Amino acid sequence: YIKECIDIAHKLESENVLIATAPLKEEDKRKKDALIELALNSVNQCLEYSTKLNVTIILEHFPNRLVDTTDNLVDFIKKVNSKYFYGLLDTGHLNVLKENLGEAIRKIRGLLKHIHFNNNYGEDTHNPMEDGTLTKEDFKKCLEALKEVGYDGYYSFEIMNVKNPRDAAAR
Fold first, then answer.
1. Which residues pair with 116 in a beta bridge?
2. Distance of CA 138 to CAs 42, 63, 104, 119, Å?
3. Which of 8, 72, 84, 108 has the highest local Cβ count within 10 Å?
4. Are 27 and 35 in contact, with CB atoms under 8 Å apart?
């Protein structure tokens, strides 16, 4: 499936493909190291293919997934060690995990290629920026941290579950 996505990205002249790890079930937590090794093997196989087509793979962290926290994302990216493999941070996911936005950005310095902006009340709901526990000050510090680390990647607003998406995006 990921190789097909890489082919589509190449045909569309897109330089990136986004992936995420599978949800981590309670019974799988005891096997996390083995599952990380399997995931690393899968990513490396995909990278063998994507590098030939000059397509970068970007891994998004998710709560309750194999790669959940910023620390786990950074560790995974460093283990892969490829100029074609980077991370994606999601402000809503960071909020669910109770991670500080600015600190997360500083941790992933140089390994970040995309960031999703959204908000929530502690559950992964992808609300508009003003609808959640993250404040304007939190987002301001996030932008300051991105500037501080010299971030020049992609930004997107990942907003779901709203009655009027255009209105939510405009806000």
1. 90, 156
2. 35, 19, 12, 11
3. 108
4. no
What are 58-77's pLDDT values in tens digits?
A: 999 999 999 999 999 999 99
Instruction: Identify which of 81, 86, 5 has the alpha carbon closest to the alpha carbon of residue 44.
Output: 81
* Among the listed residues 81, 80, 7, 13, the one whose alpha carbon sits nearest the alpha carbon of residue 43: 80
DSSP label of 61: P
Contact in structure between 99 and 130 (CB atoms under 8 Å): no
pTM above 0.90, yes or no: yes
pLDDT attached to residue 28: 83
Q: Which amino acid is residue 15, in one-letter code?
A: E
Q: Report how far residue 14's alpha carbon sits from residue 11's, in angstroms, rounded to the nearest whole number.
A: 8
User: Rounded mean pLDDT of the chain?
Assistant: 94
